[in-house]
Amino acid sequence: MTRFHYASRLGTWLAGSTALATLALAMPAMAQDAPPAAPATAAPAQPAAGEIVVTGSRIVSSGFSAPTPTQVLSAAAIAKNAQPNIFTTIAQLPSLQGSTGATTGTNSTSSGTQGLSSFSLRGLGTIRTLTLLDGQRVVGANVTGVPDISQFPQLLIQRVDVVTGGASASYGSDAVGGVVNFVTDKHFEGFKANAQSGVTTYGDDGQYLFQAAAGKSFMDGRLHVEVSGEYDHENGVPAGGFGEEAPGGRDWYNTATLLNHGVTSDGSPQYTYAEHAQAYQYTKYGLITAGPLQGIAFDKNGNPFNFVYGSNGTPAKNAAGTVTGCANFCTGGDLSGNVGIGTSLQSRLQRIDGYGRIGFDLDPDNEIYTTVNVARVRTSNQPNPGMARSGITLQCDNPFVPDVIQQDCAAAGITQFQYGVSNAILPNIRVSPTRTQYRFVGGADGRFNVLGSDWHYDAYYEFGENITDIKVSNMTLVSRYNAAIQAIDLDGQTVCANAVARANGCVPINIIGGAPLTAAQLAYIQPKNGPFQHTRQTQNAASLSFSGEPLKLPAGPLSVAFGGEYRREFYHVTADPYGNGVSDESPYDDAYPADPVLSTAGANWYAGNYHNGRGVYNVKEAFIELNAPLFDSRAIGKANLNVAGRWTDYSTSGTVYTWKIGGTWDTPISGLRLRAVTSRDVRAPNLSELFAAPVSVNVPNIFDPFNGKTVNVSQNTVGNPNLKPEIARNTEAGFTLSRPSWLPGFSFSFDYYRIKIKGAISSLSAQDQINYCNAGVTQLCGSFFLDSPDNTGNYVNIQPFNLASIFTDGFDIEASYQWAQPLGLPGRFSIRALATNVRNYITNTGLPGAIPIQQAGVNTGATPKWKLLGTESYDTDTFSVTFTQRWFSDGTFGNQYIVCQTDCPVSTNNNPTINYNKMKGAFYFDLGASYNVTKMWQFYMKVDNLFNRSPTASPQTNTGVDINPQLYDVLGRMYRVGIRYNF
Questions:
Q1: Closest CA relative to residue 822, chosen from 745, 929, 931
Q2: What's the CA gap between 499 and 486, in Å, rounded?
Q3: Contacts for 266 with CB less than 8 Å, ≥ 6 apart
Q4: Contacts of 27 (CB under 8 A, 6+ apart)
Q5: CA angle, corner 848, sides to 846 and 853, nearest 5?
Q6: Residue 354 bridge partners (DSSP)
Q7: Quick one: which of 172, 170, 160, 173 has its CA closest to 134?
Q8: In whole angstroms, what is the distance from residue 890 CA to residue 463 CA?
Q9: What is the mean pLDDT of the chain?
Q10: Statement: residue 42 has pLDDT above 90
Q11: Burial class (CB in 10 A: 0-12, 13-18, 19+), 877
Q12: pLDDT for res 961
């Protein structure tokens, strides 16, 4: 398709959207006067005049400064970024690394995280970042316990506070990397709405968003009611298909791969970087992969031809299927059977959200309230095309084998041959999760006086329920497929060779060539009722906390906060019997009739073998936090000491204690504040880690170092009820310079952070378990089997454990400058830059023989050495123009590699040799503008990735998608236009 065609499609699409808007505004300058931070607990109904509410602490006290760094994004800043999901705006902050969203996890069938928007601070993963709504827990949208930001009431968000440090002592489990707290506007008055649409420069991922909110007070302001609703539809970006043809005409996909030559003796590296890699175990329409006929492929019409391997590869025609000149892959040649780009670049997403809040003031200082949040998010993605299979044994007398190949078999003296095929004749797999959330909160907050001292209180009870249904269509039953491809001639008819399968409806299929399957053939191997999982997850949470100033000290009041919390987490999952196995608990047996060809133990699907499971735990907590002013004088400044402790009792793992100690010093130097804090933080194992329903997924192209070949395996993931909480030590120290007298519009901060996690819960990949066993870690050798002759019995069992450790440190820098009436012009010019440097991100599996792995600067992961966000904005009463820069630094494929060309040292599992180990970073430039037509109407437009920067290849050791959507923009240039109304 030509570029002219794309431009035409884009022009037509945008022309239809001009009713929404004509101008746009980019990522917020975020250099506006930062609003005072708020506590994770709800603020009093009517705070006292001049009261400052601070995030990062439970202390509510005038003039108090928390030692924990906090970044704040206002509603105006969020609106200026013009994203259909507030998640995207927050995730652009440099301290957030490894967050998940609609472009991640699209190659997955069984994870259940497709389209799940959740934050990760410091690259520690979404499970180590605590996300709150008005300081309150939110029921998880996945059994890992992480919420889906798509289900939050986004139009009523007043601001978002990001606490970039450990906060378990203040807020409880999971706050190892930090806290993201969404604060709603609880007393919104009036009506506002937003309509927006967007499309990429390639004419895909069409989006439209509608939002509205209304609020009104009654009974002389004592009763306040507000509601909001929104609908968001994002088409996503479909898969490209086979070969290297990326969707929409994108031209950057090149099947980048690391070729594994094994441990060499000639001084050459074990791994070499290559592009245009070709798997030689299968092709689009079939390939004989071993024996005397090796190298014969078939075209769409089933005609044989000599396959072009690339790399000057020559089939050895032996039983092992060796291809001389190729490593684990060839390069070049016939690439038509590659399946990597057949993964959706972005999930299709539809979200509907409704929210309501009713608050009633008992008196001017006390409020009772209730909130209701009902939301549904539907996503859909394609994990891969067809169903790549290798190691298939076909009989020479199979009626579907062409006559010329049957003759070649006879001449070679063989009766069967090994075969591999991408199965392009099969419909593409489609995974469709639906997450529905019901969340209800009732609470009270306010103040009261005891012995002349004002005390604040906050109490709430929350019940949340999330229902997740995952439906998979076009999925193959492997046993039926294996039976259907083995055909014989019986009384002049082509039938399935297996008599039992034949008696139970087996319909033979031809996997040689590209002849389309009939409805009967598809119905047999891919029944209408595919893999299915239904999960009900509930959360009950109750909290009561107090904050006050019971004593007056020479330097100011002693502030204290204390309280208790209770939480119960529960989940129950049921799955289809073909995946789970026959169970008295399954309500789906009638839709999945018994078949003797299938295993009653389950794991019958090619992928998506969900299993039944359930789990529950509860946690009881009590905490106290103190802030003691140390001194306050004009000569030496003002300082405070902040300490907190928390007792936590988990029903599954017993009692743990967390604490923090820190302080701030406002020095006599104008605007200069020093701050430091250290804390002991915890993350308890979640429901998935403890009680995961076993999940089986087929993983192709696993390298078997024992036999020097690639194999298919069934990867089985199970929970571990004996897990203990992770223990983390978190330290931060830095300074802020805020509007000094010598430069009133300037602000600057610098903070060093250091996090060490012991007993980290983690599991190895299937490939790592095999590699470690091969390297001598015998404890893992019983966790897999790779010697199945037909590739159907290979498996790897994966289970989480508490042996790992994580260490990361680095620093955050933030600078901003505001200039009113620049050069005598009306309005204001603002500039802001935020940067995060990751000095170290070291993981250690804790296994014997394993060494620490440095992941800082590994751009195939989530922790580049540097990540920066910069904005420049010029705002007037009539219009605004904003420029945004997003950048991260160059990196490597992996820091474990030793780079060499010749005379390489002996390659080891811990430190393999490689010929090239560089992965370029990326720079993205966004542009936006807005125009206020009236005081109530605003038109805006936004262009993300203005220069259409393509992603850098992220080479794999298989033919998966060679891009990293956690770091790189995989969509390309995106246009958005919209209109806002505010009355």
A1: 745
A2: 11
A3: none
A4: 80, 81, 89, 92, 869, 871, 882, 884, 926, 928
A5: 50
A6: 229, 374
A7: 160
A8: 45
A9: 89
A10: no
A11: exposed
A12: 66
3-state DSSP assignment of residue 812? strand
Q: Averaged over 16-33, what is the pLDDT?
A: 32
Cα separation, 420 vs 422, in Å, equals: 7
How far apart are the C-alpha atoms of 55 and 35, rounded to whole Å? Answer: 11
- List, as one string, the DSSP characters of 325-367: T-SSSEESS--TT--GGGS-SB-EEEEEEEEEEEEEEEETTEE
Given a cut of 50, is residue 457 above it in pLDDT?
Answer: yes
Q: How would you label 416-447 residue by residue, b for 16+ Cβ within 10 Å and e otherwise?
A: ebbbbbbbbbbebbbbbbbbbbbbebebbbbb
List, in sequence order, every residue forming a beta bridge with 898; answer none if it has no partner.
Answer: 913
Residue type, 619: V
CA 731 to chain centre: 26
Cα-to-chain-centroid distance, residue 274:
28
Biggest distance spanned by C-alpha atoms of the chain: 105
Beta bridge partners of 226: 215, 357
pLDDT tens digits for 903-952? 999 998 889 999 999 999 999 999 999 999 999 999 999 999 999 999 99
Q: Which of 44-53, 750-759, 974-983 has the lowest mean pLDDT?
A: 44-53
| Cα–Cα nearest to 847, from 921, 935, 781 | 781
pLDDT tier, 980 (very low <50, low <70, confident <90, very high otherwise): very high
Residue 440 pLDDT exceeds 90: yes
Specify the DSSP class assigned to residue 951: P
Q: Whose structure tokens read 């009539």?
A: 878
Predicted confidence band of residue 781 (pLDDT cuts 50, 70, 90)? confident
If 0-12 CB within 10 Å is exposed, 13-18 middle and 19+ buried, where does residue 940 land? buried
Whether the model pTM is above 0.90:
no
Over residues 471-498, the pLDDT tens digits come to: 999 999 999 999 999 999 999 999 999 9
DSSP one-letter code for 429: P
